[in-house]
Amino acid sequence: MTRPPVPPLALVFVLWLAGLGAAAQFAKMAVVLPELQAFYGETGAASGFLVSLISLIGIVFGMIAGLLANRIGLRRLLLIGLGLGALVSFVQALMPAFPMMLTVRFLEGLSHLAIVVATPTLIAQIAPPRHQGAALTLWGTFFGVAFGAVALIAPALLGAAGLSALFAAHGLYMLVFALIVAALVPTPAPARPEQSLTGFAAIIERHRAAYSNPAIAAAPLAWVCYTLTFVALLAVLPPLLDPRERLIAATWMPLTSIIASMTLGVALLRHISAIAVVVTGFGSALAVSALFFLTGPNLWVGIALFACLGLVQGASFAAVPQLNPSDADRALANGGLAQMGNLGNTVGTPLMVAIFAATGFVGLPVLLMCCYVAAIAIHFAFARMRAASVSAPAG
C-alpha cells in the first residue's frame, strides 16, 4: 500500500521543529553557562568559546555550507546535520574534559550550519506559493522560540539530573527529528551541479561570485545590519533600565519581535514584496531609534524598536526565494544569511559595549541608525542592480 503524501504545511511545521534543535545548540550553552563555568572551573574567555564557537564557525563556513548543499542535496545535508547534532549532544552528556568539549562543540557548529542552510531552502521548496511568505516568517522565529523554550526547560532538567540531562535531552530531540525527517520529507529535485570546492582560491572565488550577485547577496548583506543590533540590544539595553523594568525588557523585546513578525509581517507579505517589508522594517526601526535621543534608555522605545525589527526578521528569509528562483541560489543565499548573521552576532555586542564606554548612551542610537540606513541603502543599491540586469540588452 502506498503511503499518502504528507500535507506540505505539515512538512513545513516538521522542518521548523527540526530547526528549533539547531537554535537550541546555541541556547543550551548560553542558558547554563554559569553552571558550565562552575563544572569546568573556567570563568574567562575560554568558557565563552563554548557559546561563541558556533558563531565563529558560521562566519568561516557559512557560504561553504550553501555550496555543499548544492553538491550533496538539501535533505541529505539536513539529515547529516541532525544526526551529527544528536551524536555530539550525547557525547556532551558524558561531560568530557574541557578540551574535548570544545572539540565536539566545533563539530556541533558544523551540524548547526548544515541545518540552518538546508532547512529554510527546503521550506521554500515545499511550501505552497501562497503560503511561502508565512512559512519562512515562521522559520524566522526559530531562534527566539528555542531560546525561550530552553530557558523554561533547563532549570527542571538541571534540578533533576544536572547538566548531563540537558545535553542528553537535546541529543534525543535531534535524533527523533532526524528519524522523522528521514521518514516524512521527500527527496527534492537535484540542484544544478556545483563547481569543485577544492582549493582555497576556488572557495574565495565562489564567495566573490555569490556576494557580487544582487539576488543572492541582497538579503545576507542587509541581514548583518540587523544582527549587529538585535542580540547586542538584548545584552546592553536592559541593564540600563530601571531594575523593575529589566526582566520585562529581556522578555518582551524578543517576544514582541516574534509577534510582529507573525502578525503584521505575514499580513504585509500578502500585499507587498518581502524586500519591501524588510525596508519598511528597517525604515520604521530607524525612526524609532531616533526617539532614544529624546528619552534616553527607555523600555517602551526598546519594545517598539523590536516590533519594527520583527518585520525584518521573517521577511528577510521570505525574500530569498522571491529573489532566487533556483534551489541552488537559494542555498547560497541561506548560507550567506548564516554567515552574515553569525558575523553580526559575534561583533555586535562588543561593538555596542565599546561605543557605550566611549560615548555614553548617545552613541547607541547613532550606531543603530547607521546600521539601519546602511541596510536600506544596500537593498536599494541591489534593487537597482537587478533592474539594470533585467533591462540590459542580451548579447
Topology:
Blueprint: H1 8-31, H2 33-40, H3 45-72, H4 74-92, H5 98-126, H6 132-140, H7 142-161, H8 163-184, H9 200-211, H10 218-236, H11 243-269, H12 274-290, H13 292-295, H14 299-323, H15 327-359, H16 363-391
Helix pairs in contact: 1-3, 1-5, 1-7, 1-8, 2-3, 3-5, 3-15, 4-5, 4-8, 5-6, 5-15, 6-11, 6-14, 7-8, 10-14, 10-15, 10-16, 11-14, 12-14, 12-16, 14-15
Verbal overview:
The protein has 395 residues and is mainly α. The protein has two domains: 1-185, MFS general substrate transporter like domains (Growth Hormone, Chain: A), CATH 1.20.1250.20; 200-389, MFS general substrate transporter like domains (Growth Hormone, Chain: A), CATH 1.20.1250. It is 82% helix and 0% strand. The protein has 16 helices and no strands. Helix 7 (142-161) crosses helix 8 (163-184).
Q: What's a concise summary of this model?
A:
The protein has helices spanning 8-31, 33-40, 45-72, 74-92, 98-126, 132-140, 142-161, 163-184, 200-211, 218-236, 243-269, 274-290, 292-295, 299-323, 327-359, 363-391. By secondary structure, the protein is an all-alpha fold. This is MFS transporter.
Name the CATH class of the largest domain: Mainly Alpha
Distance between the termini: 53 Å
Bin the strand percentage.
under 5%
CATH architecture of the largest domain: Up-down Bundle
Tally of alpha and pi helices: 16
Residue runs with pLDDT of under 50 for 5 or more positions:
none
Order of helices and strands: HHHHHHHHHHHHHHHH
DSSP strand count:
0
**Assembly category:** single chain
Number of domains: 2
Structural class: mainly alpha
Percent of residues in helices comes to over 70%
CATH topology of the largest domain: Growth Hormone, Chain: A
Largest sheet: none
CATH superfamily of the largest domain: MFS general substrate transporter like domains
CA-atom Rg in angstroms? 21 Å
Mean pLDDT: 87
Gross geometry? globular
